[in-house]
Design brief:
A hairpin with a 2-residue loop joins strand 2 and strand 3. The protein is α+β, with helices and mostly antiparallel strands. The N and C termini lie far apart (80 Å). Among the domains are: 113 residues, no CATH class; 126 residues, Heat Shock Protein 90.
């Protein structure tokens, strides 16, 4: 019963595909019988394209028929289109050699026809093939040529795709920031045109770059966006690629269950599409998951398949990945001889082919590819150069040279004037900043001197006076003991003790002796103990790396900031735990204060709270860096970094 149900489902699916296949075929076949011969070529090309996702063999048959008919009719445009379509079919099959041959033949004809848009499209495809095979220099040449033509023709969609492809080459060269810059430029064009497929492609490629940067959060965010759009478009190639990429992220995070699920779904789609390179890549990554989880038999099966496919389509990167995975598997299963042989083969492949090729491409391309002269030096657009040489005449050259000299001189004068003004403005701004810093430091210095003076007066003046009063009081109380007033004498003595302790506390907080005598760590420890020792608020204090003093100004600023932060925690946070950490490493000191209180809106209070402004001013005074991180209901962390 179950088998019959499966048969019925399969039959229905086959019937649906066959029905769609026949519908397309019947519609186009009817048109073929009624249209002129040149239109028959174009319609055969349409059949080739329509059958690309249904039957690769049928698509190839229609493409070859279109090419033959176009040749019989001497229909140049049709020949170029047929070569183009056949090239795309062989890209799908990962047969890049045949794909390049067909696309190159198409390029020759489009150059003869001066079909600029068609040429740009071919440069784009040839660049993609070069990039897939690791020929980065050639890929860059082709993408720059395509971008130049698209810009000349005002083809925004083409510009977006070329920028995207150039960004991918930057990624392969290791220029990750530059790659993101190009991806964002390309994304702007795609969003402007509402190009959903292009938008999905940009998100996926940006995610690839963030993955290389090891920013898994942003990487997964952009993969999810790309996957959602790909599912809307029902584009199997995009869906499988994003699933595989997300699987790689979860594999790196050791989330094996999620990664194998994503790889399996991606593999199913790629097998349906016949994407051999993608199949090899998926199998290799699945082999890694199976190896990591101890499923060695399954790992061996998928890695063996991956290696066989990679060798068949001559994709060195996937072949190396499979070899490395199998070597690790053999080592884990105590097959040291096999592991050694596989590792030796991997190293030989890498050294003889991959490294040599990639290093040479980087040396040739790294510093040239963005320069306009690169396009001329590499003769990316031969026709345009020939055009310029034919059309330029001696008279016009002299005229344009004169105009150029005048413009250059004018521009140089404007530039020099602007640069002079900018330098003056920069010098003025620097002077203002220095004045502000000097004023700020002077204010803080005056404040600290006043604190020191008041603390000394309290300790040496009022403190000693209170101590003398207490001594006189104790002497008099012994001489005039009246039983009925003993409790009153005791209360007066307690009040004197309390006043004396309060004066000492204020004096200590205004200028703690520990800070002047022993430094920041001793002063911080004493301040925390005094302020928090008898409160419900628990605290921890850690410090590392303090063998020497770090400078009076820095110590004083950090101590005052710590005082302010502790007072804020006591008054406003509602926390029951405070952690303070002071770490010194190399030429920096870092103060970290965190609590588990109610948190606050940093943007709202950072520029309005007097205490926070005072903290910022003190940190600016020592040229330090201040960062708040607060989540409502979860607490606040303040990090301060300063040079010593």
């Amino acid at each position: 019963m179950r088998a019959s149900r499966v048969f019925i489902v399969v039959f229905i699916l086959i019937a649906k595909v066959a029905s769609a296949d026949l519908r397309v075929k019947d519609q186009l076949s009817q048109s073929l019988s009624t249209k002129p011969d040149t239109n028959k070529v174009l319609l055969l090309s349409n059949l080739c394209w329509e059958y690309r996702s249904v039957s690769a063999d049928s698509a190839l048959m229609f493409g070859e028929q279109a090419l033959q008919l176009a040749k019989d009719l001497h229909f140049s445009k049709g020949i170029a289109q047929a070569f183009n379509d056949l090239g795309i079919l062989f890209i799908d099959k990962a047969d890049y050699k045949k794909a390049v041959n067909y696309l190159s033949e198409s390029m020759k004809i489009r150059e003869q026809l001066n079909d600029r848009l068609g040429m740009a499209s071919l440069y784009n495809k040839l660049g993609i093939i070069d990039q897939k095979q690791g020929r980065l220099r050639e890929a860059l040449q082709n993408q720059i040529a395509a971008l130049k033509i698209y810009r000349e023709l005002g083809q925004n969609k083409g510009i977006g795709y070329s920028l995207n492809n150039i960004a991918i080459i930057h990624q392969n060269l290791g220029n990750l920031d530059k790659s993101l810059e190009y991806h964002k430029m390309g994304l702007e064009y795609r969003l402007k045109l509402n190009d959903v497929a292009g938008e999905a492609n940009s998100y996926s490629n940006m995610a690839n770059v963030y993955a290389k940067m090891r920013d898994t959060t942003l990487s997964l965010y952009y993969y999810e966006k790309a996957l959602a759009l790909s599912r809307v478009l029902k584009n199997g190639e995009y869906i499988s690629a994003n699933l595989g990429n997300m699987g790689n992220i979860y594999l790196a995070k050791k989330d094996f269950a999620r990664s194998i699920k994503l790889f399996s779904e991606s593999l199913e789609i790629r097998e349906r599409l016949g994407d051999l390179k993608g199949i090899s890549s998926n199998l290799s990554r699945m082999g890694t998951v199976y190896t990591e989880t101890g499923r060695y038999h399954e790992a061996l099966n998928v890695l063996t398949r991956s290696l066989a496919i990679a060798k068949k389509i001559s994709v060195i990167e996937e072949e190396m990945s499979a070899l490395l995975g199998m070597a690790k598997l053999k080592a884990l299963t105590n097959q040291s001889d096999s592991a050694f042989v596989l590792m030796k083969l991997y190293i030989a492949t890498r050294d003889s082919v991959y490294d040599e090729r990639l290093q040479q491409q980087i040396l040739d391309v790294q510093n040239k590819y963005e320069n306009e002269n690169l396009e001329k030096d590499l003769q990316l657009i031969k026709k345009e150069k020939e055009y310029a040489e034919i059309s330029l005449k001696q008279r016009k050259t002299a005229l344009w040279l004169l105009v150029f000299v005048i413009i250059s001189m004018t521009g140089a004068g404007i530039f020099l004037f602007y640069r002079h003004n900018q330098r003056q403005k920069a010098a003025l701004d620097a002077g203002k900043i220095l004045q502000q810093e000097a004023r700020m430091n002077a204010v803080f210095q005056v404040q600290e001197e006043e604190r020191r003076r008041i603390a000394k007066e309290l300790h040496d003046g009022l403190g000693q006076t209170l101590s003398a009063i207490k001594l006189n009081y104790q002497s008099l109380s012994r001489k005039a003991i009246v039983p009925d007033y003993l409790s009153d004498f005791d209360k007066l003595e307690e009040m004197l003790d309390s006043a004396n302790m309060e004066v000492r506390s204020i004096s200590h907080q205004m200028m703690p002796k520990e800070l002047e005598q022993f430094g920041l760590i001793a002063a911080a420890e004493g301040m925390l103990k005094m302020n928090l020792g008898n409160t419900p608020l628990k605290y921890s204090f850690e410090h590392y790396g303090f063998k020497d003093r770090i400078g009076n100004q820095t110590e004083l600023a950090l101590f005052r900031v710590l005082q302010e932060l502790v007072n804020n925690v006591i008054k406003h946070s509602g926390a029951d735990m405070l952690n303070v950490q002071i770490v010194r490493y190399e030429s920096n000191v870092v103060l970290n204060v965190s609590d588990n209180g109610i948190g606050f809106d940093v943007d709202k209070y950072e520029k309005r709270g007097i205490g926070l402004l005072n903290i910022a001013s003190r940190i600016d005074g020592i040229k330090g860096h201040l960062h708040y991180e607060s989540v409502l209901g979860e607490g606040t962390t303040v990090t301060i970094r300063a040079a010593v």
